[in-house]
Design goal:
By secondary structure, this protein is an alpha/beta fold. It contains 9 helices and 8 strands. Helix 1 runs parallel beside helix 2, helix 4 packs parallel to helix 6 and helix 6 packs across helix 9. The longest helix is centred in the middle third of the chain and has 22 residues. It is globular and about 50 Å long. Bound molecules: NADP nicotinamide-adenine-dinucleotide phosphate. The site of NADP nicotinamide-adenine-dinucleotide phosphate (NAP) has 29 residues, from helix 1 and helix 7.
């Protein structure tokens, strides 16, 4: 059955590849990027993979600006009374300016808090049978709650690994709390050092087959084997559901991450 799927950060890398796969599989894609020209190019490319060559809808929003993210999430909920899947794929590791206009570390803003806002706002239109797929990583480090809500100048790896564990923690917490009326919420490490811009620029290596990441994201979005995955973590380096960082298995720590995000957003 054809599903309506929003995928953030679908102008490049794993997001763009996954969007092409899902479009070719007959799903209705809603694309997102921060750069209008790249978004237009992605819409054309994904359109070429769509039956009937129809151009998918696209939205331009910089996820490092949380007010813009809030407005966009409202706009999405207004424009799409029903949606089946949200893939929170957009992410950042290294960038020249690591502090946002809100005084946050850009990794926490884009990788942790923006997807939280999008998920909370869109969960009601996803409803039962819906899914939220959150792009986690093998890089996970204990979250400094202060650094999550206020820029402290963490180095790239510390900020990225903390932002990904924080994302995994709220994903598990919301996923475990999601009952029959709510969507499945799952965190997925797509595989390490896949051949994308993030890996080329951040780690100086070419990386391995990007299809490994796109395939697992598409599977998590629509595959039957992810139907019962709410609150779980899939590690594609292991090719299986696996334990995340131990902090993500601690309900008190998971709750503390959510409380800190909610306090920041209130
Ligand atoms: N590649 C890997 O080996 C790997 C491993 C583990 C996890 N991941 C995760 O997989 C996801 C995709 O990463 P990738 O490797 O495909 O990286 P990528 O090629 O750099 O793509 C990242 C996407 O996110 C978008 N993005 C970045 N900052 C944004 C912002 N402020 N606002 C809106 N969109 C923004 C990018 O837009 P632009 O096109 O404008 O840059 C791009 O579309 C990320 O969450 C990453 O952390 C990747």
């Amino acid at each position: 059955m054809s599903k309506t799927i929003l995928i953030t950060g679908s102008t490049d890398g794993i997001g763009l590849e996954a969007a092409k796969l899902l479009a070719a599989d007959g799903h209705h894609m809603i694309l997102h990027g921060r750069n209008p020209a790249k978004l237009e190019a992605a819409q054309t490319t994904v359109g070429e993979h769509t039956e009937g060559a129809t151009t998918p809808l696209g939205y331009t929003v910089d996820l490092s600006n949380l007010d813009d993210v809030k407005s966009w999430a409202d706009e999405l909920a207004d424009n799409h009374p029903a949606m089946d899947v949200v893939i929170n794929n957009a992410g950042v590791f290294q960038t020249p300016n690591t502090q946002t206009s809100d005084g946050l570390d850009v990794r926490f803003a884009v990788n942790t808090i923006a997807p939280y806002l999008i998920t909370r706002r869109l969960a009601p239109i996803l409803g039962p049978g819906g899914r939220v797929v959150n792009l986690s990583s093998a890089a996970q480090a204990p979250v400094d709650l202060e650094a999550m809500v206020r820029y402290t100048g963490l180095d790239n790896m510390a900020a990225y690994a903390q932002s990904k564990l924080a994302l995994t923690m709220w994903s598990m917490e919301l996923g475990l709390a999601s009952d029959d009326a709510g969507p499945v919420v799952v965190a997925v490490n797509p595989g390490s050092l896949l051949a994308t811009k993030m890996v080329r620029e951040g780690f100086g290596v070419a990386g391995s087959d990007i299809g490994i990441g796109a395939d697992i994201i598409a599977r998590a979005a629509v595959g039957d084997d992810f139907e019962q995955s709410s609150g779980r973590y899939f590690d594609n380096d292991a090719g299986a559901f696996a334990p995340p960082h131990p902090d993500a298995e601690d309900a008190t720590k998971r709750r503390a991450v959510i409380d800190a995000i909610e306090a920041l957003l209130s």
